[in-house]
Design goal:
Oligomer: single chain
Helix content: 55-70%
Shape: globular
Distance between the termini: 42 Å
Largest sheet: 8 strands, mixed
Mean pLDDT: 95
Amino acid sequence: MTDYAAPIADMQFVATKLAGFDDVAALPGGEDLSEELLATIFEEGGKFASGVLAPLYRVGDTQGSHLENGVVRTPDGWKDAYGQFVEGGWNAVPFDPDFGGQGLPWLVATGLFDLWHSSNMAFTLCPMLTQAAVEAVSRYGSPAQKATYLEKMISGEWTGTMQLTEPQAGSDLAQVRAKAARDGDQFRISGQKIFITYGDHEMTDNIVHMVLARTPDAPEGVKGISLFIVPKFLVNEDGSLGERNDVRCVSLEEKMGIHASPTAVMSYGENEGAVGYLVGEENKGLAYMFTMMNNARLSVGLEGVAIAERAYQKAAAFARERVQGRDIAGESPDSVAIIRHPDVRRMLMTMRALTEASRALAYYTAGKFDVALRAPDDSARAAAQARVDLLIPIVKGWGSEVGSEAAWNGVQVHGGMGFIEETGAAQFMRDAKIAEIYEGSNGIQAMDLIGRKLARDGGAEATKFISEMRELDGALADVGDELASLRKALNAGLRSLEDATAWMLESHKGDARDAAAGAMPYLRLWGTVAGGWLMAKAALIASSSLKTGDGDQRFLKAKITTAKFYGERILPRALALEADATAGADTVMALADDEL
């Protein structure tokens, strides 16, 4: 498999030029952050990604994780790699220094996870879930819970999980039936959870499970769900590990991809009941869990970006080496590498443009996330949080679809060799698909976008963001002919987004099925246009830098070309997505259930 090369230049450009780096560095706690430090962090993270994680990617796919005599065994090299991950301090990057964290912004952590997901997505799922668990305990845990768990989880010495799903309760968490019976100042948890990523493994001494369950007198539905910390091993008062808790992995799922990531079926309370500790107040577990889910949804969207990058690198390398067919322009009498064929170039440029646009949107959202957490001004935090809330389902949904589209194109570039597992292109496609399903499938993200994020404020934040994107028009016009086609395409995309948003707001007041039937194309429309806006900004910055002679000239010229390609080939999708989003539900719902 082609070696992974960390895309440091693009990451640095996106973080510093498009994601609000200066605003993030100006926040409390960012005093020592500079572009030079950011570059150093990305470079060191890239070395770990390419040198340690990437060589294990294929190993993990072929070996997978296995359950042996009640113990989950990860693939060869996994435990050692995780040890290096912890020793390097990588797990602690964005967390509270009071508990051993480095206190760096989420924008920095997002770039690092871009590297790690790209080099080895199955491995990185473990720290990703730990990251989400740390966020929940940090925000809602008691002082005693923080003292007991946070330092070890932040360092990565202990990992964490999210445990929502049950056999009868997939995304419908109102159906959660796991029980929590009070036992003094703790609870006894019983029930079963499924689809638990890294629910068990041998890489660390302890695993801290964040579990949704119901107390005996809890109301029905989502209002009766509480959140509990349920450690694999109980923790003594001095911080040492005590006896094994009554929680077991009883089986692992056989999956289409991410074979190395153990997806566990977890059983609670086969004996006396697993000891669990209530987080926060009873019956508020779903709200607390959404802290973890929003964090994880940004990361899952980033998985799509990362897989797209890896698939693109491999496809481009193969296309340079694979000699087949004559040059259609007649410039060479001999057979040429397939990278000379226009249709192969079209696929590669599509992969490249989508990767860069979706990376920009993910980093931009991470930058807003930092402002929402750290800004000293209440209004600034509220404004940033409103933007994050709008963008989270878009980053998750569109970003993960970008990953699948890029991986699909990557297989196609390889031709028949792409259909052969040995080449590795198919693994990207198999792994990428899970990101469209993880943390609420993309259809659920689309319903969240129209039902919560759009309707709750009457479209105020969406309208504000569209207006901000329109402000770029003057600067694009000033550049003249160089970016005229990109300007035209962006304006057309913004019109489609504006019209579709107005239609969604009006339709949501009537038959909800009309809006729901177009929710997914509406989400794709948002991603396509917002990505186009960021690519246009990138092109403007690159054009200005070329004129002043700043930066890598070859990189800047390529950025402009990629942005123009996005305008010519990707942004025109907006018109079709608008039509799809606003078509209503008549033909969608017309056939009887038994006719489908």
